[in-house]
Amino acid sequence: MRIRNGDDVQVINGDDNGKIGKIKSVNIKSKRVVIEGMNLVVKHLKPSQKNPKGGRIQMEASIASSNVLPICKNKSCAKHNKGVRVKMKILNNSEKIRACVKCDHEISNNE
Q: What is the C-alpha to C-alpha distance for residues 55 and 103, in angstroms, rounded to an integer?
């Protein structure tokens, strides 16, 4: 998968279509991601010793990784601050990096 924890991504499908958020966690086996503030669901809790009243909790559910695109931070790119497709680029020291398909700029999650 070309999406990592901490990446800023744009949702391209579903109820949150077009919204931008940060990835909280990535599940590689099921190819799903959890994004902060997206795909909110209500979980009902039974009363227990920890929570004697029970209740309802709003939490983020996972989204298929195919429904999100990383955001390009390059200001000269035509897709600046929008979701872009990603390609793998091999540097001279045989290191692989993720790059924007439009502008060939590196996509990193610490920008």
A: 49
> What Rg do the C-alpha atoms of the chain give, in angstroms?
17
Instruction: Tell me the C-alpha distance between 6 and 9, whole Å.
Output: 9
Cα-based distances in Å from 26 to 9, 30, 36, 41, 76: 12, 9, 12, 18, 29
**Domains of the chain and CATH, by start:** 8-46+54-100 (2.30.30.30)
Tens digits of residue pLDDT in 48-90: 998 899 999 999 999 999 999 999 888 888 888 888 999 999 9
Distances (CA, A) of 60 to 9, 34, 57: 15, 7, 10
